[in-house]
UniProtKB/TrEMBL annotation, chain B:
Pfam families: Response_reg (PF00072). Keywords: Phosphoprotein, Two-component regulatory system. Gene3D superfamilies: 3.40.50.2300. This is Response regulator receiver domain-containing protein. The keyword Ribosomal protein does not apply. SUPFAM superfamilies: CheY-like. Residues 5-119 form the Response regulatory domain. The modification 4-aspartylphosphate is found at residue 54. GO terms for biological process: phosphorelay signal transduction system.
Length: 868, 127
């Protein structure tokens, strides 16, 4: 974009070779003014964006909040710098005010709170529910059921939250990870995978504090004492993981079969898994703060298991009332939770322990520990495939244990269990279970289904409720994940946890393998995505069929798009209204957005009364205009006051070619203006006289009065002439107007020369006297009109930014005439913007007036041989 | 048009390579330094139009580097470009005379125009 400076440079010979006279100083001032205005526009734009993001509950991470805050701060700091250079020494106090505001703002959004350092290691004997802030929920709950209920859990220890902080701070990883997240541009899966690799690399290279290594070695030596061999499961137990609000189910890593000498490598891998692409996507969609992630890690003895599985103490999808669901597989239960196997399932009545339903799966594979502790997939022998993985006596034992755990924690539980080779039941994990409201009226499928003939698959048991239509897209590879279209129905062979990254964008989930007790089913329920998991033949039957409808109420998947369902759902995940990221954003806004410094004539209009960054921008903008046009500057710049039939409240600086030469060095007549852009703007501003303020509705006036009460500078009298501080800077083809009409502030700028590539018009408008909602409605009204005239418009809150570029000079002139008209005629109409009739009337009136303005402009320009 | 002589100071090779490629296409003559100390030496030896400087670097950090560059060449405009999103870096950087503070990632065009602003300001003794 062409700058004032470039326009001046054409007029004034190369400033660097000039001696230091008034014109050179003026050019320097102009350039500072330009930089200040550019920073002002940018700052206001980001402020408006941030306010809108807070209002709309948008999806973003903490790095975005920090980056927005810092960008707005940098632009405000730039404004201060430029103002200080326009009049050295006069405004230096602003710097200290600014520093205080931004440092306070940083504190308000600070991440991991300062806490005194606790133990680096806690052994299972030392862990109980109160340990949760050091061990995370997973380990704390295991310690609790062992100490309080006497249940068997694996021996082991926790590498604590304090250890994690120590590792992060000691190695500088804290800052480095924040930096890597910051410089990642965007949040799509591809970029997040690159980020995952960079963070993993940084964590792998970071030096592990010697003290921490010693503690880990000491704890594992203690475990090894009575054993000839020791293999460990190194499991994530992050703070916040397994909480009721966000389970992070399956998003973090567990490393199985780890020998003691490899604990620290596995520890690094588990810590790095917090920043995996899928975990980060999950985090983003939950509105959780990436800078508050703390990974505590459980190091647990591996149990030689002959069977294992999951228990839900309630039916999570609400289909079975008062039921407890136990699933099991032979060998290690990892194949259930990672969605790769079908499991035996028993639905048991919680009251009388009778079995209501039994499903014995055809178990082709099982997971078994090898002698080195690794887990291998092994084929199940033909004659064992349909044999139940556990006998009835174990089912009863598991139910008793599960109900004791539920009673102790007083909420439904999701429990992972194994049966050891010596017949003992061990609990590997227990966590709160979220239970969905039942979507159907009872357990049975509705009798009448008018779409039954369209069903491709029936009798599907839902893992998460809902209804969705969309194109079926199969996801088998990473490439499939990257190319997955929004709203499609996700079809997959295995319900792998990493697919969680796609769920917020998927209409529904259908998986051939896996079970409703797996991690992915959990995440589907969290995001409210309908899911069928463990549907034999799904991939073969649904691949390539195009659009399908998924209805968990009927348990069917239909060909084509169905409407008129007996219930519908919103497929998009609803973000919690007060998630941690939004809360952090809202905590920073008070330092940025509120504007209390509005009356430049008040004695309180000083740096020390700037309470927010917005106040500082307001102060800088006002003072920069004053500096630009101050008395001695005005004479140096040859600023003149505009004169029509009477003196007007406008001053004008001609950078060259914008006016005809005049003998009068104080005043300039309208007839002397030669700048095509200023003439077009002026025609727009004056062609149709302003009607004055709209007839005030009581509510509108009250809105202004209440706004004014919060803002003493806004008195509701509104005896507003054409503003009191309006400045044109012009050249032959250029015009910049800085104006303040009562309560609102505008910048209009345009260049209209021979080369369309250089031409543009820009209109920025914000503020007003009424409350924010009315001001926003006025901005939308103006935006609609500007868009019809070819402007590209961006409305954020009550601020409007409109531009048109790359067009012929005549189009820029017309655009400026439209901007000029709106500048004058939209004054004070915010007061009546709660009245839909007034809104429509203004829409019609403005459209008619603008047509008249443009036809008057055409007549005047053709009279003058096209060019104004 | 005269080539812009830029000193780009950053310890990340990927970043340097990407920006060098794009800026060279815009008629910018780019010299690079991966450490603060090397940057100060380069400023002593060569007459640059503008410096673009990272904050987090091994050894001497960006703010100290800025101080030393300004001690050697007070009029040379220095733009901070960092992924280190901390207010402290902004406050200190501007106090030490940086022309502006940009946060990564930043488009090549935005950086290029910011460099032009900085060079213009120097011409007018505004830095």
């Amino acid at each position: 974009m062409r700058s004032i400076f470039e326009i001046i440079s054409r007029v004034v010979r190369n400033p660097s070779t000039e001696k230091d006279d008034g014109s050179r100083q003026f050019i320097a001032r102009c350039e500072n003014f330009r930089l200040l205005l550019a920073a002002n526009n940018k700052a206001l734009e980001i402020m408006a964006e941030m306010s809108e993001e807070a209002r709309l509950n948008s999806l973003f991470g903490m790095s975005h909040v920090r980056s927005q805050s810092l960008k707005v701060s940098a632009n405000v700091r730039q404004m201060i710098e430029r103002l200080c250079r326009m009049n050295p020494g006069k405004y230096d106090a602003l710097k200290d005010v600014f520093n205080i505001i931004v440092m306070e703002m940083e504190k308000a959004s600070d991440s991991r709170s300062e806490q005194s350092r606790g133990p680096l290691i806690l052994t299972m004997d030392e862990i109980c529910a109160e340990s949760i802030s050091e061990t995370g929920s997973k380990m704390a709950m295991l310690g609790e059921i062992r100490s309080e209920l006497g249940l068997k859990v694996p021996e082991g220890f926790s590498i604590t939250a304090s250890a994690f902080m120590f590792f992060m701070e000691n190695s500088g990883l804290d800052d480095e990870i924040n930096r890597l997240i910051q410089i990642t541009d965007g949040n799509d899966l591809n970029e997040l995978q690159t980020l995952e690799a960079s963070i993993k690399h940084a964590i792998d290279l970071a030096a592990m504090p010697i003290e921490l290594e010693d503690y880990i070695e000491g704890a594992s030596s203690e475990l090894l004492k009575d054993r000839h061999d020791l293999r460990l499961a190194i499991r994530s137990s992050a703070l916040g993981e397994d909480s009721g609000e966000a389970s992070f189910a399956g998003q973090f890593l567990s490393v199985l079969g780890v020998s003691p000498e490899n604990i620290t490598d596995s520890y690094r891998a588990v810590v790095a898994s917090m920043y995996s692409a899928t975990a980060m996507t999950y985090l983003l969609n939950q509105g959780l703060r990436e800078d508050e992630l703390v990974m505590c890690v459980g190091c647990l003895e591996m149990i030689e298991s002959v069977a294992g599985g999951v228990i839900y103490t309630r039916d999570p999808i609400g289909k079975h009332k008062n039921a407890l669901i136990i699933s099991g597989v032979p060998g290690h239960p990892c194949s259930i939770v990672d969605g790769s196997a079908l499991a035996d399932t028993w639905v048991m009545d919680r009251a009388d322990r009778t079995l209501r339903d039994v499903f014995i799966a055809d178990k082709e594979w099982q997971c078994l520990s090898s002698s080195n502790g690794q887990i291998n997939r092994v084929k199940v022998s033909e004659n064992r495939r349909s044999v139940p993985s556990i006998p009835y006596s174990v089912i009863i034992e598991l139910a008793e244990i599960a109900l004791r755990i539920e009673k102790h924690f007083n909420c439904p539980q999701d429990i992972e269990w194994v049966k050891s080779s010596d017949g003992q039941i061990y609990i590997l994990q227990c966590r709160p279970l979220s239970v969905a409201e039942s979507q159907s009226n009872g357990d049975s499928i509705p009798k009448k289904d008018e779409h039954e003939s369209l069903a491709i698959l029936s009798n599907c048991i839902p893992a998460s409720h809902g209804f969705a239509c969309g194109e079926v897209v199969i996801v088998e590879t990473d490439d499939d994940m990257f190319n997955f279209p929004d709203g499609a129905i996700l079809l997959t062979y295995n319900a792998k946890p990493r697919l969680a990254a796609l769920l917020p964008r998927a209409g529904a989930l259908i998986s051939e393998h896996g079970s409703a007790t797996g991690h992915l089913a959990n995440v589907a329920r969290e995001f409210g995505i309908p899911a069928f998991i463990g549907i034999t033949g799904a991939v073969e039957k649904l691949s390539g069929v195009g659009v399908v409808s998924v209805n968990t109420a009927t348990g069917r998947i239909y060909r084509g798009f169905l409407s008129g369902q007996n219930y519908t759902r919103d497929n998009l995940a609803v973000l919690p209204q007060n998630n941690p990221v939004i809360t952090a954003l809202r905590n920073t806004l008070p330092f940025i957005v509120p504007l209390s410094l509005t009356d430049p004539d008040s004695s309180k209009f000083t740096p020390s009364n700037c309470a927010s960054l917005h106040d500082i921008t307001r102060f800088c903008h006002e003072k920069a205009v004053a500096e630009m046009f101050r008395e001695n500057a005005m004479s140096a710049a040859n600023a003149k006051r505009l004169k029509g039939e009477r003196l007007l409240q406008y001053w004008l600086i001609d950078l060259g070619g914008g006016t005809s030469s005049s003998v009068d060095d104080k005043y300039i007549s309208l007839s002397d203006i030669k700048s095509n852009t200023m003439k077009a703007l002026w025609i727009g501003m004056t062609q149709i006289p302003w009607d004055g303020p709209p007839p005030v509705q009581a509510a509108g006036l009250m809105s202004v009065i209440s706004e004014a009460a919060c803002n003493p500078a806004l008195a509701p009298g509104m005896s507003n002439n054409m503003g009191d501080r309006n400045y044109f800077i012009v050249s032959r083809n250029y015009c910049n107007l800085q104006s303040r009409f009562g309560f609102h502030f505008c910048t209009v700028e345009g260049y209209a020369g021979d080369d369309p590539d250089e031409n543009y018009a820009f209109f920025q408008f914000s503020g007003g006297g009424a409350d924010k909602s009315r001001r926003m409605i006025r901005s939308w009204l103006i935006a609609g009109i500007l868009e019809k005239q070819g402007f590209i418009v961006d409305v954020k809150e009550d601020s409007l930014f409109a531009r048109i570029e790359g067009v012929a000079a005549e189009a820029v002139e017309q655009a400026l005439a439209v901007a000029g008209y709106l500048l004058v005629h939209t004054r004070q109409i915010d007061m009546v913007m709660s009245d839909s009739n007034a809104y429509r009337n203004y829409q019609v009136k403005f459209a008619q007036d603008i047509e008249a303005v443009l036809s008057s402009y055409s007549i005047q320009s053709s009279e003058q041989g096209r060019s104004l | 048009m005269k080539k812009i002589r830029l000193l780009l100071v950053d310890d990340e090779n990927d970043f340097l390579n990407a920006y060098v490629r794009r800026l060279v296409r815009r008629n910018v003559e780019v010299s690079v330094a991966c450490r603060g100390r090397d940057a100060v030496e380069a400023v002593k030896a060569t007459d640059f139009d503008v410096v673009v400087l990272d904050v987090m670097m091994p050894g001497m950090n960006g703010i100290e580097t800025l101080r030393q560059i300004k001690a050697v060449s007070p009029a040379l405009p220095v733009i901070i470009l960092t992924g280190h999103a901390k207010s402290e870096a902004l406050v200190e950087g501007m106090e030490c005379g940086a022309f502006d503070f940009l946060l990564k990632p930043v488009g090549t065009e935005d950086l290029y125009y910011k460099m032009l602003d900085a060079i213009r300001s120097r011409t007018l003794d505004l830095v």
